[in-house]
Amino acid sequence: MTTRLAQAARSIFESLHLETATPRRVGSLTACKGQFLEAAAFPYPVGTAVRIAQNGGGFVTGEVVGFRGNKSIIQPFSQRLSVATGARVFPCGRHDHIACGDGLLGRIIDAQGAPLDGRPLTGCQENWPITGFASSPLVRGRITRPIDCGVRAINGLLTIGEGQRVAVIAGSGVGKSVLMGQILEGIDADVIVTGLIGERAREVSDFIETKLTPRIASKSVVVAVAADHSPLLRLRAAMRATAIAEYFRAQGKKVLLLIDSLTRVAHAQREIGLALGEPPTMKGYTPSSLALIPQLVERAGIDSRTGGSITAIYTVLADGGDLEDPIVDAARAIVDGHIVLSRTLAENGTFPAIDVARSLSRIMPDIVDAEHLAAAAHFRQLWSTHEQNRDLLLMGAYTAGNDAVLDDAIAMHGDMLNFVSQPMHSSINFGASRDALLQGFGL
C-alpha cells in the first residue's frame, strides 16, 4: 500500500513540472466603489480574468479593466456580490480568445459563451481573438454586389451592398424591432449573427420566439445580454458577436451581423470609462466610448482573401429623437449608410417608418444600374419636395400649377407612402422592388 501511494505521489509531482513553475501572486480587495472593486498587490495586466473569494465560500469572476496607482480596478461579472475587504483575488488566465465553430449555429449564448437554451455546447474547437485580427486596409474588398434584404424601401431606395455597414437610427418605439424582423426574414445570407445588447429580458425572449423562425434559427447565432448585467458583459457581448461573424467570414461565408443596439454598447463603455476616471464630454460620453464605435464597426466588411463578407446592421437609439446625439453622429460618420426612422410616419401607421429624405446609402451608386439610380433619385426629389412644403400645404396656401415638381409630389404622395410601407411578415425581393420603383417612378 505504501509503495503504491509513493508511486502515485511521484506521478502527481512529476506532472506538475515544478522545475519550471513560478509563484502566482494573489491580491486582496481594498475597496468597493459602485460596480467596481480595487485590489492591492495584484500587478496583472488589463484583461486578466480573476476569481474573488466570497464570504461563505464560492467565487465571483471578473476582469481587470484598469489600474490606479499600484491598485488594480476589477469589474465583476455578477452584480450580486458577497465580498469583504481583504478578500483574496486570484488570477485565472485571460479572456482574449473565444471558442467558435459550426456548433454555434442555432444556439443562443451569453457574453461568456455559455448556452442559454439549456443544451450543452459542442462542435466549437476553433479559437478566435475576441478583438479580431489586425489587418491591412487593402485586405478589405470593394462592395460591388447588392444584397437582398427583403424590404422594398431599402432594396429600391437605399440599396445595401454585400459587406456594407449600415446604421438604423431611431427613437424609442418607432419600429426598429419590426424592421429588424423583416430584414432577418428576407436577407440573403449564409449565417446570421445577432447581438442583443442591453435589451430588456422580455424583449430577448420575444425576439427569439417571434423573429427566429425555424428557417432562420438553423443558420443563426444569438448573443444576448440583458440590461441588468454588468457593463463589461454588455461590451464583451458585442465583441463576441463580431468575433463570431469574423470567424464565419473567414470560412468564406456571407454573414449578416446585427447589433441591437450600438448605443447601449457605448453606454457600457461610458460606465467603465467614468469609473476609471476618464473626463466626460458631451452628454457624459467619455473619449473611449466614442472611440469604441469605429473599432467595432471597422471589423465588418469583405475579406478579399477568403471571399467571405460581413454585412453589418447596427441599431442606434436617438435619445429624444436627437439626430445630433454624439453616438448618432459618430456612428453616422463611420458607417457606409444610415436609415432614419420617422416618428411621424410611425404615428400615422406607416411601417417600416423610413424617412427617405434623411436616409442614405453611400454604396448604392456603385452597385445598381443607371436606370435604377435615376428612379430612386426621382423618388427622393418628390419625397423631399413634399416634406419641405408640408406646412404650406396644410395651411392651404399653395395654388396648383405654381411648381411642377411640387404638383407631382402632391399627386404621387399616396403612391410613395404605399411604396415605403410593407406588411410586417412579408418579404419583397430585390428584383420585385426594383421593378416596382421603375414602374411607379422611373423617368
TrEMBL record:
Which terms are listed as keywords in the entry?
ATP synthesis, ATP-binding, Bacterial flagellum biogenesis, Bacterial flagellum protein export, Cytoplasm, Hydrogen ion transport, Ion transport, Nucleotide-binding, Protein transport, Translocase, Transport
Q: What is its main location?
A: cytoplasm
Residue ranges annotated as coiled coil are: none
The residue ranges crossing the membrane are none
Q: Name one Pfam family in it.
A: ATP-synt_ab
A single GO cellular-component term from the record reads: type III protein secretion system complex
Documented EC number(s): 7.1.2.2
Please list the residue ranges annotated as the AAA+ ATPase domain.
Answer: 162-345
Q: Which family does it belong to?
A: Belongs to the ATPase alpha/beta chains family.
Q: What is this protein called?
A: Flagellum-specific ATP synthase
Q: Which organism is it from?
A: Sphingorhabdus profundilacus
